[in-house]
Specification:
alpha/beta, five-stranded antiparallel beta sheet, four-stranded parallel beta sheet, disordered N terminus
């Protein structure tokens, strides 16, 4: 039977009613069930995705009574219980009836029926502690070199852009929940969409946009103006923008955003050219030179008693 790819999160294209443990003999699983290495590896988004494809039928996670003795198990509850609780909460907000919710069903089997996982030679590749540390350090050094090259190429920018990638889990959650919401005729819950406000202390450093891990905050520049735009659908409410803002101008408001997937502009600053270095910058008040040149001029005045430039 086809499995569920826990690394990519790919769910089967067909509708699925039952999810079973891969240690259960194939003949003991219900026909058409998907078999996974651990039911505790199913995230809320993946459960909702399975429910969206099952339409009116419930998705049932089978409890064979083996989880308590499994290294990934939890003697207090089914390993998928936490994700199931979160998924049911989101589904309830889009109007899904309780009888259609994903659920756990007890179908015990004798422990001696468990199939032991067959590890291929590729699964048994070992790495020494020294090899692991060397590989880890190599990746860090490569990242540091890339950032150093960026700073050398543009000395005015001390905050190289982070690698921005939309969260696959959030993309999957919104897509699956949108399908269920369309089936029930409900809107997506506002709790899914955070809001961000930018206060008067903002000076358009745009550090927030450069450090945003998903690209929810992004820089823009057009018509002689610059600023920061926001896409609530890709925001994961990590709070990095609040912590990174030099002027403490950003406020993150979870669950207070618009449920539309439109990109909105949060700030707009007019650009002007610095007469000293000819670089464009965003001025505040009556400033006429860019911050870097202003610092150079102030340093010259402090050290030599005259104004540089």
């Amino acid at each position: 039977m086809p499995g569920f790819d826990l690394e990519t999160g790919a769910a089967p294209e067909r509708a699925v009613s039952f999810v079973d443990c891969v240690r259960v003999p194939a003949g003991e699983s219900p026909r058409g069930a998907i078999r996974v290495p651990c039911l505790g590896g199913l995230s809320p988004a993946r459960l909702i995705e399975l429910k969206a494809r099952a339409k009116r039928a419930p998705v049932t996670l089978l409890d064979r009574g083996w989880c308590g003795g499994c290294p990934a198990g939890n003697r207090m509850q089914h390993p998928g219980g936490s994700a199931l609780q979160i998924a049911r909460s989101w589904l309830r907000q889009v109007g899904l009836a309780d009888e259609e919710m994903p659920r756990v069903e007890q179908r015990p089997l004798p422990p001696d029926l468990q199939v032991q996982p067959d590890r291929s030679p590729a699964d048994r590749v070992r790495m020494s502690r020294r090899g692991f540390l060397r590989a880890f350090a190599g990746r860090g050094a490569a990242r540091d070199r890339a950032q150093a090259d960026h700073v050398r190429n543009d000395p005015r920018d001390r905050f190289p852009p982070a690698a921005q990638l939309a969260s696959p889990e959030r993309v999957r959650l919104l897509a699956a929940l949108s399908i269920v919401a369309a089936q029930t005729g409900r809107a997506l819950p506002q709790d899914l969409f955070p809001a961000i406000t930018i206060g008067e202390s903002c000076r358009n450093h745009q550090v927030c946009a450069k450090l945003c891990p998903t690209g929810a905050l992004r820089s823009y520049s057009d018509d002689g103006a610059s600023g920061v735009a926001f896409d609530a659908s890709t925001c994961i409410s990590c709070g990095d923008c609040e912590r990174a803002c030099p002027g403490r101008a950003i406020r993150l408001l979870p669950g207070r955003g618009l449920t539309t997937r439109e990109v909105t502009r949060l700030s707009r600053w007019q650009l002007q050219s610095c007469p000293m270095c000819e670089h464009e910058f965003t001025a505040s008040g009556d400033e006429r030179v860019c911050p870097e040149c202003r610092k150079t001029r102030e340093l010259g005045r402090a050290l030599f008693g005259f104004q540089a430039g």
